[in-house]
Amino acid sequence: MQDTRFDLSAFGLSEVARCGVHLREAVSGASSADAAAQVVAEFFHDSLVDGRGDRACPVVGVFLSRPQAAPAAQVVAGPRARQERRLSLAGLSGAYAPWHGTEGSAALDLPVPSPEAARQAPLAYRLLDRLGAWATADPDGAVPPLSGVDVVHVSDSQEDAPDEALRAEGVRSLLAFGGTLSPGEWFAVVLFCRVALAADVVDLFSAVTSSARLALLSGGRPPPALEAEAVRTSLEDMENLVARRAAHLQSTVARLSSVTADLRRSQQELEQRERQLRDEATIVELLQQAGSALAAELDLDTLVQHAVDAATGLSGAAFGAFFYNVLGETGESYLLYVLSGVDRSVFDKFPMPRNTQVFEETFRGLGVMRSDDITADPRYGHNSPHHGMPEGHLPVRSYLAVPVTSRGTVLGGFFFGHPERGVFTERHERLVTGVAAQTAVALHNAQTYRQEREAAMELQRHLLPTLPRVEGIASTSRYLPAARDRGAGGDWVDLIPLPDGEVALVVGDVMGKGVRAAAVMGQIRTACRAYARLGLAPSEVLEHLSVLVDDIAPGCITTCVYAVLDPAEDRLRAAVAGHLPPVLRDPQGRVRFLDERVGPPLGVGRRRYPQQEIPVPPGSRLLLYTDGLVERRGRPIDDGLRSLRELLAGPVGEIEADCDSWLDTLADGQHDDDIAMLYLHRPEDASQQVSAVVREYAPVSGAVPDARQLVSEALHEWNLQHLVNDMMLIADEMVANAVRHARTPLRVELRRAGERVVLEVTDSSTEEPRLIVSHPGEFGHRGIFLVNAIATRWGTRRIDGGKVVWAEVKAS
């Protein structure tokens, strides 16, 4: 069968015509009316589709009603007695169990009308009864349709709706159409549809009925007169259908014409109303945008530009300006301005407006000034040297000026101009006055914020140290406040040279912003420097700081990294309190985070913080930082840490350039939090290499001359003979003191690193030497004064199980 498809959801006149043509082509050559009925059933089953191209009718049946003794398509002439009629399912496509047939068969054959037929095929019986399939035949055997009904549509909400078996197949409606096939015979086609049919589509099947009749007749070789009558009926049905559609179209056109007339009469009103609504919507949108921008903005320059842009748009001015007062660092006030509607260069050659009669009301905050033609105002043109607008000034006729005041203080003023007369109305004045009121609040907030932020920044600048120069270590630091103007925070870094040649490295972050955070940071930093100079271990420093934070700022979470770098020993001792771990790059370019042991943030009371010790040989680089460097809105912190690792593992060079490059890459001006960085590099310069000799001695008096000899030999080997006497005196006093107080072996170490020579004596005693003035006749406590006089620096530091006393002299 030819593949011809018709969309039931878009069935129209053209589909009716094409369906008739293809239907007749499909049944051509059928040997009987029953064979033609089967072809018709298959045609509708295969050809009707839904909007998606799927089969629209899962079941199609074609019924024939004939006298019991009459063969198919037999023409009976002349009067005869009324005979019993039978209903047969002549064609079936698709399976439907209640009809007791299989696909392609027509097993249903029942007398009608009869209770048996109503019982065995109730759905078909009711549908065909409504079509008049077994109406009483006339004396000639003709069976006319009942009341002319030849199409019946049943939706799924009606009494004869599809049963459960059909609903399971997605059937939503039933469509039956038929009529007289030939004298004494009647036909009907029943479609079980998955598509809900509209009334106008159902109406089209009156013409499809005639096409189906022609197709069924062609299978039984009808007499020419009967076939001609069927063709004529088909054409009449098609013409009637076209006429009905044309009448419906004409009625619709008439209604549209009437509506069009009404629309034409109201078109101008609608257009005018639309313009008004559009203008109102623009005003509302501008007001909303202005309010949101002014409420959220704290940057003064951005704020005033938002304000003048919004006010210029609301007033309909050709251009607008906003003149406002700001205070300089010395506290003196000066005037600035922003423009909207024209380029700033247009006004660059003109001086700032003075307090003339026209400007006085605005600059003194006396009230709003609105003029339809400012050049005709009696206050205009009285001031030299211009006596009006300067030459080259944009033309101004309509003029509107609104002061911006807050708590009796004039903060600035809006000025608007237009070259035409009478542009500014009372409504424009109200709108701009509203923006001026919002601007006054926003300006006051912005100025207050700027003052607080500058105070916090100034406080923080004074609290943050200038890094001291440490021999053998290149160091630099960075501090960047948050890019979104949230105020200075509590981030800090510090580098603290310790008396024994070591250096303390600190980076921390106090939660919060503003003056309070900066003040708390300053107290913590000062305390940290004091604890560092006591020679406390990193874990002990953090323990003391935690107690301090809990005391001075309860509930203020503070994170910190405290580390001590010993260049002589090439080691770093570090403790971390809830902070992001430092990053170490070794001389071979390997990068690691020092995150093996991390304790809680400061401020949780006295707590022992874990400490780690890491080798840091010459050529290493170390970075301490706060979370603002790697954390950003929209970027997980893990991604930031991964990027930081990649940067340190890549090419590195001069530390200042490294810092700038890494900040550009990781922050790029978009950081939401403060950034603090402390970056160190231990150069591999041979002049900075450390030379050292170490000996251990028993705590006996003989250790003193042995230590003196060790010092002398080492200094001669290093070509530092000029230091021999001084260093031997220092060794005498320090070793003798250790022998006097210690009960375990002594450790003596002499190191040279560049221009520094350091002698360290380690013993098990916790008693530290102090500068104590001896009483007359008392010989103790004098050796330490000798050490203090000779050494450039000296000191002690506690270690597990004892102490280290050290003294440093310059090699040159």
UniProtKB/TrEMBL annotation:
InterPro entries associated with the record: Bact_Sigma-Reg, GAF, GAF-like_dom_sf, HATPase_C_sf, HATPase_dom, PPM-type-like_dom_sf, PPM-type_phosphatase-like_dom
Cross-referenced CDD domains: HATPase_RsbW-like
Stated name of the protein: protein-serine/threonine phosphatase
Species in which this protein is naturally found: Streptomyces griseorubiginosus
One Pfam family linked to the record: GAF_2
EC number from the UniProt entry: 3.1.3.16
Domain GAF: from-to ranges: 299-453
Keyword annotations of the record: ATP-binding, Hydrolase, Kinase, Magnesium, Manganese, Metal-binding, Nucleotide-binding, Phosphoprotein, Protein phosphatase, Transferase
Residues annotated as domain PPM-type phosphatase: 473-682
SUPFAM superfamilies documented for this protein: ATPase domain of HSP90 chaperone/DNA topoisomerase II/histidine kinase, GAF domain-like, PP2C-like
